[in-house]
Structures are given as C-alpha cells and as structure tokens.
Design a protein that fits this description.
The chain is of the alpha/beta class. The protein has 14 helices and nine strands. It folds into three domains: 150 residues, P-loop containing nucleotide triphosphate hydrolases (Rossmann fold, 3-Layer(aba) Sandwich), CATH 3.40.50; 47 residues, no CATH class; 85 residues. The two termini are 22 Å apart.
C-alpha cells in the first residue's frame, strides 16, 4: 500500500502520529514482508496508538485483543453460544416427532438424529473472538494483540500457529485459513521476557520515551491551545522527571494530560505551587510524588533543580530507539 517509508510517515501524520524514521521503516517492512510487528517499550509511549493510527491511515478495521493473566483460547479465538444451542435443542425436541415419523427402522432414525446433531457445532452457533474475527474478516484488518507480556506463556505458545501460518484450528470444524492476511501488531511493556519463538516470527521495534524536541512537537500537536513558553516548560519538567529514580516514569500520554490540565487551570507559567498542585497528573505513586517534591524544594540551583526550565535538558531516552506519538 505504501510506496516507501516517507509515505508511511505522511500517512501516520494525517492521524496525528509523529513517527520516527526507524518506526516508519519497520512498519513499511512489516507490511511488505507480511510479518507481525512486535512493539516493545515503556507503558504510554505510543505503541497501541501506532496500531490505531495505522488502521485509520490504511482504512482497515482494527480488531483488538487485550491480553491479561489467565487469558485462554476460548476468550481469544472462539466460544460456542450455549444459549442458542439450548434454544435449538428445545426446537428440535418439538420437531422430533415429525423428523422421525416415517423412519423405517431404528438405524434410520439414529442417522436422522445424527444429521441434526452436526448443526450444534456449526458456524451458526460459533461466537468468534478477536483472533477468529481477524482470520475470517471479509477485508484485510489490523489485529492488535495488546500487552502480550501480560498473558501466560502457554497462551503465547498458542499464538505461534496464528503468527506462522495465519490460520486457526477449531476441532469441531477443522482448520480455518485467513481469507485476507491481517496486519498483526503486538505490544509489550517488557514486564517479562517473551519467548524466542515468538520474537523470531516478528519484526521488532523498541519504542522509548521521545526526545525533548519530539515530545514538544507532540504536545504542540495535541494541545495547540497551550502557550508555547508553557509547553516548553512542561516538557522540560517531564524530561527531567524521567531522570529521577522513580517507580514509574511519566508517560507521553500523561504529558498530554498534564498539558491539558494546565490549559484548564489557565496557567501562564509553571511556578512552584502549580507544579506541586498538578504533580499527581504526571506521577501515580505517592513515593514518586514525594521524591519529586523534595527535588523541587532543594533550592534555586538550576543544575540541581530538575524542574528549572533553565537547567539541564534531558535527552529523553536511555540509549534505545525513541518513538513519538500523537
């Protein structure tokens, strides 16, 4: 669909997603090679948003499977609609006399009943879940398998058939091959190590926190009503917060929430009171908030004060590919 990586960047930009060159390249290659794309990185840096933006840019339906501990095949692949099956059982009971009325012998009656039993496990009563929906979709879709690291290793192993051959097996119906191979994107917050078998089937991209300039561009794009000076100050604060030893660093989505909060408060500048009053928009652990407040109160030395916009500027990353999102 895309002629080159620049076309990918431009298409994502129409959905307010600012993609770096590495991100645009790996998305382009995933589409051309027909391989799943594994996106790994801290929570809130735009991995899920990339899949959403890609689906909108390509005008393909987005099918999302949210992973969690204990997720099994029935919740991800399909279930049988037992309520409809029970209703059909009642209908069959009412019609049983008519079905068997002219049967010549017991063998013929059993054959007729067997034909009716097959209907119980037909597509009529099949309730497709995200994986099966993506496989049987009438048009090419984007399958987002979100936070795969939260699922159990057994479920991860189950996915290998889908990611290798783009087919699933329903014991009662057989193997169902994809009508249109979906574009598959998996996200991981890196809470556990994924298997080599899974990684081998995917193209890989680590998306880190964005650089100062990239994050500032994101804030200006998503919160255009925020004054330029205040936007710069806000990004400086967030970038430097990430240099503290926090339990959870503020994500890009929280930066955007904070920028919106500053607009709602009609803030003109980031003074100490405004910072302290709104700090919990960025930090979601009390220990982190207290650590940040102690850093804030250390004094006026710009080199030591992580909240001073005139102080040192964080690079925003830790040696890995940095991504930017809407």
């Amino acid at each position: 669909m895309f002629s080159d990586t620049q076309a990918v960047k431009q298409a994502l930009a129409t959905q307010n997603y600012i993609a770096t060159d590495p991100i645009a390249t790996v998305v382009y290659l995933a589409e051309k090679l027909g391989k799943p794309l594994l996106l790994e990185g801290p929570a809130g840096v735009g991995k899920t948003e990339l899949a959403k933006s890609y689906a909108k840019a390509t005008q393909r339906p987005l099918i999302r499977l949210q992973c969690y501990e204990g997720l099994d095949e029935s919740k991800a692949l399909y279930e049988w609609e037992y309520a409809k099956q029970m209703l059909y059982t009642q209908l069959l009971r009412d019609k049983l006399q008519n079905i068997l009325a002219d049967a010549q012998n017991l063998h013929e009656a059993a054959d007729r009943l067997g034909q009716e039993e097959d209907i119980f496990f037909s597509e009529r009563f099949l309730l497709p879940r995200p994986l099966l929906k993506a496989i049987t979709a009438e048009q090419q879709s984007v399958l987002l398998i979100d936070e795969i690291d939260r699922a159990d290793a057994e479920f991860e192993a189950f996915l290998l058939e889908v990611l290798s051959d783009f087919q699933v097996t329903v014991p009662e119906l057989g193997t169902i091959v994809a009508r249109h191979q979906p574009t598959v994107m998996l996200t991981s917050n890196n809470t556990r190590e994924l298997s080599e078998a899974l990684k081998r089937r995917c193209l890989y991209m680590f998306i880190d926190y964005p650089t100062h300039d990239a994050e500032l561009a994101i804030v200006r794009l998503r919160v255009p009503e925020l004054k330029d000076k205040l936007a710069t100050q806000a990004v400086e604060v967030v970038q430097n917060l990430r240099q503290l030893d926090l339990k959870k660093n503020p994500s890009v989505s929280e930066t955007i929430d904070w920028a919106k909060a500053l607009v709602m408060l009609n803030a003109d500048t980031l003074d100490q009171k405004t910072l302290e009053d709104t700090l919990t928009v960025l930090l979601k652990h009390e220990t982190d908030a207290q650590r940040a407040k102690r850093a804030l109160s250390r004094g006026s030395n710009a080199e030591d004060d992580p909240f001073n916009s005139g102080g040192r500027r964080s690079s925003g990353g830790r040696g890995r590919t940095r991504g930017s999102w809407n």
